């Protein structure tokens, strides 16, 4: 199933996993993003099954599981270049060798993949090799019936990060290997209020062409508050976030744990909230440890696949100031996580 931002891919993936389980199948529900896997695991834990079960894994947790079971150590490097090679070549290569072992036993009956565009269909340097399908060869070894097993695959080619080389995912390479493939296009956007939808449509650029093109709706989208765009100096970030949160909560638009604060920076120490464990009277935590009454901070890259009722995006310049396609894409992806409330705190020079 192919669909643009907010077209319901993750919701359908989850529901399809439940249906396979109720048919008596043991299901692997796989995504790329760790934070999304945590969210899906929490939703799965609330569901009771008549017969079998759904096992949620991020790509990284699946890799950990396979390597640990084979007695292979996990040696995560520090530098960006080393990390890129480790996660893009070393770990997938080890996973491939593990599942090719004659003693390896498949453990699933069905496969559901969300964010499928982030799962490579070729190995580095072998993009033209049509005899193999990259990481997917690993996943099919986990299935008792291999490519004859039931599968549901959800993707959007335009949401694959530019730095991860788009040519490494080609959907037709997967389809060609399946026994009875059928393609479905999810044409319409379902996630957003009308003001957020209209705002996202204005984010036209080199890096967002496909993302904006795939935003369309058939019926009337719900009304909601206008998107807030603020110009602030970096040292004003904490006070402005507090003001927005207090106003949204006091006006009854959302609760604290329905707000997600997003930054383009991967670590809290680089954000405008670096030295703060609280925003006003509320604790500021990572999304994996958030409880009711707490605010969550997450990087935009790690928020892929997630959504929230309300989003505050910090540490970004105005969209028209970006010259790089990846920066443009990151801005769009951060803003598109919001369903009904969106505030963007644009950074001005001190």
List keywords for this structure.
350 residues, globular, four-stranded parallel sheet, single chain, Rossmann fold, 13 strands, 2 domains, alpha/beta, seven-stranded mixed sheet
Q: What is the strand and helix layout of this fold?
A:
Layout: E1 2-3, H1 9-22, E2 27-31, H2 34-45, E3 54-58, H3 59-69, H4 80-100, E4 110-113, H5 136-141, E5 150-153, H6 171-175, E6 185-186, H7 194-201, H8 209-213, E7 228-232, H9 237-250, E8 259-263, E9 278-279, E10 282-286, E11 295-299, E12 308-316, H10 325-335, E13 338-347
Parallel strand pairs: 1-6, 2-3, 2-4, 4-5, 7-13, 8-11, 8-12, 10-11, 12-13
Antiparallel strand pairs: 9-10
Concise synopsis of the structure shown:
By secondary structure, this protein is an alpha/beta fold. It is about 30% helix and about 20% strand.
Q: What would you note in describing this structure?
A:
- With 350 residues, the chain is an alpha/beta fold.
- It folds into 2 domains: 2-186, Rossmann fold (3-Layer(aba) Sandwich); 194-347, Rossmann fold (3-Layer(aba) Sandwich).
- Helix content is 31%, strand content 18%.
- It has 10 helices and 13 strands.
- A 7-stranded mixed beta sheet has the order 7-13-12-8-11-10-9.
- The model has no long low-confidence stretch (mean pLDDT 93).
